[in-house]
């Protein structure tokens, strides 16, 4: 999505004709952007009743009904209904070629008699929608708005650098060889490879394994292994790859996942995250900003409320993922969905009276409620399928019940802020809000939206099973069974028996108007380098002068 | 759009009611709620996948237009809306209208 792809050969010929003329292209795109912006702006505000509508929706140019979903002509101000063919009628009557569905941004060509895809439209639409979301985000602390997203355009230096590069043809997908019951590791590595934030970090050379000089204490740099792994995957070689060093380093660092026996993928996941964190830049024990914590770390909040006096004790805990129970109160698991598991997770539960007594009034009847205080950019879920009845692993049972999970997920109802607001509204007697986000300051909704990108599945029994995974590449799903990679469909993925699911935030949010810390350190390093060079120059000059003096003395000695 | 408009009073009320719902934002709020519930029930993912695979299968034979896809899938899609979702949305609409119309 970095460059405008013009001259796309698969583009509809009628669109190509318009795009060929600079003025016509500009007019069409301006109109397109205007109608998308109108709808995007409207959608940010419909959720909150109160003020009057500023702009009423348009009426159909043929039948006059108010349009709940407008299809706008891209050549003139008309709009119409789709269902009864009114907008098509307008296009035929006027000779205009294109109309757009303001909700989805899809463009219809009357000559082709079908919707046509074009990267230019898709890009405009994404940028316009994002701009509206940014405008609609209200901060509590700062009066400034969100920093507007600007697509990257290379400057002259970068342009020159790009021209000198050779593109590597690669798929970005490679199978991983099973090194002896290591499917548990392979599935987690595939989920890391499919993880856009991890992938981008290593591919943009943020941890170069050839330059890395680990300190004496940490010879096993797992972060280097990630760099090597991603370099191997994004290379011309598409044969299956054996992550031998990764395995060796992991074994050395964590005894729980060492040895050739089958291990739990989730255990490996946590162990790998901790190792990469320990060997990455920016790693600290509190408020770490290493790549792992920047990607996976969130905050869980538990509110313990006293039933008698109402005092609430809040406590936050950092987390790297969320583990969800599958067993219901009745002991059987039916119709499990990710949403129902999350609801159960955030449902108030009564605490054992012996456990806790209120600091304020001393009573012992409390309810505890979990919620998510801070959402991480990548949200990982684990379904607790393996019940360990005792310390003896062999006595454990696997819960086979499938859990249905969606391709896209909105986490708003499970977050602390939204839950608190909803409780407040309930207590004050107001009707529960008809919208997902009860308050404008907590929105827009887009901030809570996540898309599925990887699923780890387990088949078989606890000690004798096999791990496979599904991962998404753009909009296509692939199944990874160790070294075998096959094209799959979304429904194959969603119908599988998931053990872990990985979701990534649709739009990243970041601290606005700040220079990234790595840029700051880079500039500081550059200044230091200049200092060092100046010192070296001075040293050289000194030595040169000393040599001259020596030569003079020698000459004098001869004479 | 209304499947039953036998009662002439209902027919006369439909257009102004619909207009008011759209202008209020009620229409969009209910549509958003419906979309959320359909997503949670897996309906959206199912039909997204079905239409995508249908289009993919037709790639070699000249492709398939959106209109054709809609014509083929819409009846099934409408039929497979979970009854719980249907009842919930009807209930929401009913509650809204009860506040606005005198019966």
Q: Could you characterize the architecture of this molecule?
A:
The complex is a heterodimer of chains A (559) and B (103). Chain A is an alpha+beta fold and 559 residues long. Helix content of chain A is 35%, strand content 19%. Chain A has 15 helices and 21 strands. In chain A, a hairpin with a 5-residue loop joins β6 and β7 (312-319). Chain A starts with 12 loop residues before the first helix and ends with a helix. Residues 1-5 of chain A have low confidence and may be disordered.
The radius of gyration over CA of chain B amounts to: 17 Å
Q: Terminal Cα separation of chain A, in Å?
A: 77 Å
What is the multimeric organization of the chains shown?
heterodimer
Strand fraction of chain A: 15-25%
Residues in β-strands, percent of chain B: under 5%
Helix content of chain B: over 70%
Shape of chain A: globular
Largest sheet of chain B: none
Largest interface: A-B, 31 and 33 residues
Overall radius of gyration of chain A = 29 Å
| Helix/strand order of chain B, N-terminal first | HHHHH
Overall mean confidence score, pLDDT of chain A: 86
**What does the largest sheet of chain A look like?**
8 strands, mixed
- Poorly predicted regions of chain B are none
Structural class of chain B: mainly alpha
Overall mean pLDDT score of chain B? 88
Shape of chain B: elongated
Catalytic activity (chain A): Thiol-dependent hydrolysis of ester, thioester, amide, peptide and isopeptide bonds formed by the C-terminal Gly of ubiquitin (a 76-residue protein attached to proteins as an intracellular targeting signal)
GO molecular function (chain A): cysteine-type deubiquitinase activity; zinc ion binding
Pfam families (chain A): UCH, zf-UBP
GO cellular component, one term (chain A): nucleus
